[in-house]
Amino acid sequence: MADTTGAARAMKPSIPLASLKLNCITGRTAASTAILAACCLAIPGVLASENSIVTELSMAGPETALVKSLQEIAERRMDSALSGIEQLLKTNPNFRLAQLIKGDLLLARARPINDMGDTGGVSQQDLADLREEARARMQRHQESVPRNVTPKYLLQMQPEQKYAIIADTRKSRLYMYQNVRGEARYLADYYISSGKNGSQKLKEGDKKTPVGVYFITANLPREKLTDFYGSGAFPINYPNEWDRRHGRNGYGIWLHGTPSNTYSRPPRASDGCVVLSNQDLDRVGATLQVGITPVIISEEVEWVKPDDAAVLRNKLMQHLESWRRDWESGDTDAYIRHYGRDFSSGNQGLAEWAEHKRQVNAAKSWIKVGISNVGMFLYPGRNDLVVVNFDQEYSSNNLSNKIKKRQYWMKENNKGPWRIIYESAA
């Protein structure tokens, strides 16, 4: 809920459109050059083919139409591009980037234009924001989503986790993966806005988006929110256990929509939240499970082949099973060896926690431990930190319980053995 500023920019009046004048061939050529250069495109062959664009997009919608029109601009089919943009604006009149391109196309009929947004009457900051949005949207269609690899963070999804969300703040993209019999499969991707000052959130008010492994904690419907949040909001558990361990603070980091008079916001426009268009949020929101769906936010998504992810997953499963067996065996020393020197749980460090465990286990004549529904997520930007969630069924001669547990496993000194550095109920 902290994401409250930036609304003024998102709610500014529509971009003025140039008057329709005579057909100017020189203007058409200059228009295509200026618009595509602003999108970081060469002319005319950089874009993927139109068929590839349409088939790779997960849903037909405004972005599809925008990309198609830019493809036509690349091919200097300006009339067709203008017609497509006009049709797009009939259904999405608040799509400011499309308004800007329409203004350029109309103005190019009267005179050459030198840059995207050469219509006048728009602030330089607004133009810079819209150009960045154009670049971000077009980059997606120059670089197709890899299909033979997956985000390296999705080591293993729990059976109950039907979907996982991966946000790439650098590319302004949110990827959705579906859990298909334990395999993470690409389903869709969407344009997003994130923090004005980038990512790696450290403190309240820094206007940055956090990086880490998070989970959806609530579903806030439209009627409980102001119009600024659009069609709804989904808070995540920032700051998580790792954030708090490192003194990061703040609150109110949500996935949410846009005001009713705004289709989308620039790539860097929020106070830390991840923002989608209302149409996209409705699609994504229909898949989110409160308390279950992982939301992994990265500065830039890293991809791996499934077999490579399996190597780390299998190694960690072996460590987890060894931890379970040693706990069940009653050999407290062997059990404690699975915990790192920097371990913490609540207010206890390793020494206090180990002493408590010795006292507890001394009263046990037998212990049974079952673990199931294991999920594993590699932390963004690191190869030595994994968040592990599972269901734990514990029984002994004097206690029985079932809990959902969360552990953070770290590879000591980045090349030593994997140890548990945090543990608590999830």
Q: Which terms summarize this structure?
A:
426 residues, alpha+beta, five-stranded mixed β-sheet, 12 helices, 20 strands, elongated
Structure, briefly:
Helix content is 32%, strand content 25%. The strands form five sheets. The protein has a seven-stranded mixed sheet. It has helices spanning 7-10, 25-38, 50-56, 62-74, 78-91, 96-107, 124-142, 241-245, 278-285, 306-329, 332-336, 350-362; strands at residues 150-151, 154-156, 163-168, 173-180, 183-191, 194-195, 212-215, 220-221, 232-235, 254-256, 268-270, 274-275, 294-298, 303-304, 339-345, 348-349, 367-378, 385-396, 400-411, 418-425.
Describe the structure.
The chain is of the alpha+beta class and 426 residues long. It is 32% helix and 25% strand. It is built from 12 helices and 20 strands. The strands form 5 sheets. The chain has a 7-stranded mixed beta sheet with strand order 2-17-18-19-20-15-16. A 5-stranded mixed beta sheet has the order 5-4-3-13-7. Strands 8-9-10-12 form a 4-stranded mixed beta sheet, covered by helices on one side. Strand 19 and strand 20 form a beta hairpin. The longest helix has 24 residues, at 306-329.
Helical proportion?
A: 25-40%
Strand order of the largest sheet: 2-17-18-19-20-15-16
Relative strand content: 25-35%
Label the structural class. alpha+beta
Question: So how many helices?
Answer: 12
Cα distance spanning the termini: 23 Å
Quaternary arrangement of the chains shown?
A: single chain
Total number of beta strands: 20
Main pleated-sheet profile: 7 strands, mixed
The parts where pLDDT drops under 50 for at least 5 residues are 4-27, 40-59
Write down the overall geometry.
elongated
Mean pLDDT: 86
Rg is 25 Å
